[in-house]
Amino acid sequence: MTQAHLDKFGRPIVVVTGIGIVTSLGQGKEDNWRRLTAGESGIHTITRFPIEGMRTTIAGTVDFLFDGRVAAPNLSEKLATLAAEEAIAESGIGTSGEFPGPLFAAVPPVELEWPERQQLADAVGHYPIVYRDLLGAAASGQFRPWHERFLFGSVADRLADKFGTQGQPISLSTACASGGTAIQLGVEAIRRGETEVALSLGTDGSVHPEALIRFSLLSALTTANDKPEEAARPFAKNREGFVMAEGAAAFVLESYAHAVARGAKILGVLEGCGEMADNFHRTRSSPDGRPIIGCMKNALADAGVTPDDVDYINAHGTSTPENDRMEYVGLKGVFSEEKLAATPISSNKSMIGHTLTAAGAIEAAVSLLTIQNGRIPPTINYNIPDPAIPLDVVPNVARDAQVRRVISNSFGFGGQNVCLVLAAEPA
Amino acid sequence: MPDVTEGRGRIQRDVWITGIGLVSSLGEGLDAHWQAFAAGSAPVTDNTTFAPYVVHPLVKVSFDNQIPKKGDQRQMEPWQRIGTYAAGLALDSAGISKNAEILSNTDMVVAAGGGERDFQVDAAILNDLSASNDAGRLLNERLLSDLRPTLSLAQLSNLLAGNISIVHGVTGSSRTFMGEESSGVDAARIAYARIAAGQSEIGLVGGAYNAEREDTLLLNDLDAFCMKGEFSPAFTAPGIASGSMGAFLVLESPEHAKARGATPIAKLSGVWSERAKRAVAGAVTAKVKSLLDKAGTAPGTAVISGVTGAREATEAEAEALTASGLPVRAVANRIGHGFEAQFIAALALAALTVSKGTLFPPLAGDPLEKAADGVSRVIVTQVGHWRGEGAGLVEKA
Q1: Which of B137, B190, B387 is facing A53, going by the closest CB pair?
Q2: The pTM is what?
């Protein structure tokens, strides 16, 4: 450990040595990067389950992994497994089935789903049933494996077995900021010196009828079903809601000293993490943007940089009328007018939709790819600018640019906000 | 905020417990629990409402006292209400309620499950689905019309923390851990570690569980984990008697506490989280033994166990605890099992015990609980009903 491996606050520098990603655009960094920079959309009409009677019938589901329906935790687990495999292979760390650090897993909450409920009801042996009857069917022992499968810790537990991570994995949720929180927990653990390495990931495979309808009932989803690939329109005047989506991203985080000592290729630096909770409303941001502003400022302070040091903003950019306006209000509170106007900002959600629990992780991965490749993915479907949000959203077409430092925003229902500062390897 | 003294030569400092909020079947607040323990009262159980399941129902609580707006209460299912209430008790106990400056720098970690289902709606939809030729459409239409729009917020795991932010103004940061018993261990461990390392000054950590709901009984009975019939002491491994409870702690650095004139209830001296390979015979017992060794078994040490009553996990823990020779008390013998909340409740009772300097009387009929002398340090053990082993050490401040 030398001074070069510590940040300006004397803490171990945390670097990324492996990245994995799966979205509706495809499996792996290569496919995702190619399609993201080509401005392609992964949003499509849902075929996984009947959509008759629904208000929103489109999503960014990942349909290429299973034939037919599997329960959400199975899909979340599969997505996370693929992302983690890619990240660990790239980093070349550990040995197969023996990852030398803890697992921080952003996973969606789970519960029995309707197909399971229907099987339980059928097993009662008569209709009509009352809910209590289902308990008798549960106690029959016919559905024993469902207990473990639908525990909240189930997905991370199986990942811990598969990858041989150390200790008890942490399953976490800060709603749509979860992926960012998983990374933050890894960064903090390495800074504390508890570990040299951590596996942080976010995964979400929860597009099923009730999940979709619940977001519909909160009026959060777009109903622009006719042209699915044009439905997610972050920052555009005609944006009308987000598109639910699935995916995962995983990171091997490592102390700089450890990565250098083993000759690992360094993909970027996790310079800072900031968070601040909002107590205004369960689904709406404080109108003055104070928590969003505080969250970004905390992240910049944690990284020891200023707004002027930021080259690109990877937006939360959900495409809801409220979020995108509030994100702009927040950015105005952090960046000078001049700097904000000169800083490109784009929303990956315009192409891959809102992957909820995984979004913060996927967007952090894209942020690092942006730095690596010197190319900024666009905000697609930006055809009608919103005069109330005068930002350079990298409209519709990717742009070459030297990007050394990115902030990536994630704002969750429940007022849970996380901002990450990611940068190129120290010169 | 970064602390310049943090880093590889990082600071390790004491962590104080300066506030406790506890509500359960035995009552509300530390005094009510201590009195019930001292009286050797039988646990409060209900084996009729959800027969054949045994649960510990929540004491009657006036939620208005901590959640004054009815509108807020309506946005929450009971588990969130219980947790938001207990969090308020903890903030009161620490003397920081309504202190906007401190609350806006308080780091929150909540251990949460989720739920809850609307039982009438679920049953009605299942009945109609059984008779439908177009089940997909029917399900979609019924969910759209029958689910309350706010239901998903009342179900989301991270919305207990969200409600605590809204109702009590805790906004420094907000993280939610899931994963049954071990989520409580890790919530405490992360809050503890961040303060010890100078990454945080003050934190609110806790969890809540509503035992009086059929959907979680269903989930646990899928694999026959529930206690049925008559209540039996936990170390007889009778199955899980779930208990409604909310448990929150305020953890604080001594510097931060002293600066505001606060005194510790007890000291949190360590939290460890482990994961035995449960398929390997003896692995859980060995893990618990190693946790006890880490915490140290000096004279004056007792164990307050978060034992669940679940098969296998309970016997394995009992073996390690018996071998240690330490006096043992089971939280489940008094307030039942609160899953995500259990470890935090056990830490609360450990803090209460060391502050009193004596262990409460044993429960008759439990094979491990024996009379004990003075206690100045308590090891809290937590063996998850299906996964995860953890421990915490609480010492007299």
Answers
A1: B137
A2: 0.98
